[in-house]
């Protein structure tokens, strides 16, 4: 078997496993209080205008540190749909139902390197701005409604 095909096959299998773990955790999450819980929306790259569906799970780790897991859709070559997920810890400051947050994640050289995130929101919507050496854009998320 061609080594490139083998590596691509392993990569696709691992992405599928990550997706199933995220989906299982998504289905098991029943917390939707404060900033914690399930969020849905879209991501948009201001660099190349790519955009697609985005889901996010947020859980409190300790104090004002929250674990944030994203699962995004992307069209490779403009037509081949793929999914990918990653996580980051973010620091959240809350006051009067308003949230300010920031964090960063190194997605590796192939995915653009170090991404820095900052944003704000309420119990019903969140907006993230992200920036990396090769990309920048936004995530706009709304609270996942019960039964969806």
What does this entry show, briefly?
The protein is of the alpha+beta class and 148 residues long.
Would you write up a description of this structure?
By secondary structure, the protein is α+β, with helices and mostly antiparallel strands. The chain has one domain (3-143): Lipocalin (Beta Barrel). The protein contains one helix and eight strands. The protein has one helix at residues 3-28; strands at 37-45, 51-62, 65-76, 80-95, 98-106, 114-121, 125-132, 135-143. The protein has an eight-stranded antiparallel β-barrel. β2 and β3 form a beta hairpin. The chain is globular, with a radius of gyration of 16 Å. Mean pLDDT is 85; it is low at 5-18.
Q: Indicate the percent of residues in helices.
A: 10-25%
Shape: globular
What is the radius of gyration? 16 Å
Briefly note the CATH topology name: Lipocalin
Order of helices and strands: HEEEEEEEE
Mean pLDDT: 85
User: How many E strands?
Assistant: 8
CATH-level-2 architecture:
Beta Barrel
As a percent range, the share of strand residues is: over 45%
| The level-1 CATH class | Mainly Beta
CATH superfamily annotation = Quinohemoprotein amine dehydrogenase alpha subunit, domain 2
Physical arrangement of strands within the biggest beta sheet: 1-2-3-4-5-6-7-8
Unreliable spans are: 5-18
How many domains make up the 3D coordinates?
1
Distance between the termini: 42 Å
Number of helix segments? 1
């Amino acid at each position: 078997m061609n080594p490139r095909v083998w590596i691509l096959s392993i990569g696709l299998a691992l992405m599928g496993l990550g997706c199933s773990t995220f989906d299982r955790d998504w289905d098991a999450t029943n917390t939707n209080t404060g900033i914690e819980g399930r969020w849905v929306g879209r991501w948009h790259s201001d660099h190349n205008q790519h955009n697609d569906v985005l889901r996010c799970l947020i859980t409190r780790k300790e104090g004002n540190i929250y674990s944030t897991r994203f699962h995004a859709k992307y069209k490779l070559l403009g037509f081949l749909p793929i999914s990918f997920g990653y996580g980051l810890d973010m620091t959240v400051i809350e006051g009067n139902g308003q949230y300010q947050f920031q964090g960063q994640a190194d997605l590796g050289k192939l995915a653009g390197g170090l991404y820095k995130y900052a944003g704000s929101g309420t119990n019903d919507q969140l907006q993230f701005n992200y920036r990396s050496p090769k990309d920048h854009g936004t995530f706009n998320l709304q609270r996942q409604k019960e039964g969806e």
